[in-house]
Specification:
Blueprint lengths: L5 E7 L21 H13 L7 E7 L9 H8 L6 E4 L3 E4 L4 H12 L2
Parallel strand pairs: 1-2
Antiparallel strand pairs: 1-3, 3-4
């Protein structure tokens, strides 16, 4: 197991709703924002045994300087759905934040 923390970065738009809703033209109720999903993910991680082994950060692609995140530019240019989840500078997931899938991937990184 490595002594360094696993770096998790969620790239998205803080107040934007997450896609994947229905195609109707009516209101489908309150939308979950990318910030809501990020907060749920942080709460999830904080309840796990690996909480002290990860560093989690949200990067707003409209408000933050994303020039320093070269590994995400190609993915953004290809129009993959936000939010994007990067683990140790590699984009692994797009379109949603799946707590369990990210947790499993973090465990893989910890056990390398």
């Amino acid at each position: 197991m490595s002594d360094s923390k696993v770096k998790i970065e969620i790239f998205g738009i803080k107040d934007a709703p997450v896609g994947g809703g229905c195609s109707c033209e009516g209101s489908c109720g309150p939308s979950t924002t990318m910030d809501d999903l990020y907060s749920e993910f942080v709460n999830f991680i904080n309840k796990t045994k690996i909480k002290d082994q990860v560093e989690v950060k949200f990067i707003d692609v409209l408000e933050d300087d994303i020039d320093k995140y070269e590994y995400v530019h190609k993915i953004l240019d290809a129009n993959y759905g936000l939010p994007l989840t990067a683990i140790n500078n590699r984009v692994c997931f797009h379109g949603r934040i799946s707590n369990n899938m990210i947790y499993d991937k973090i465990n893989e990184e910890i056990n390398k």
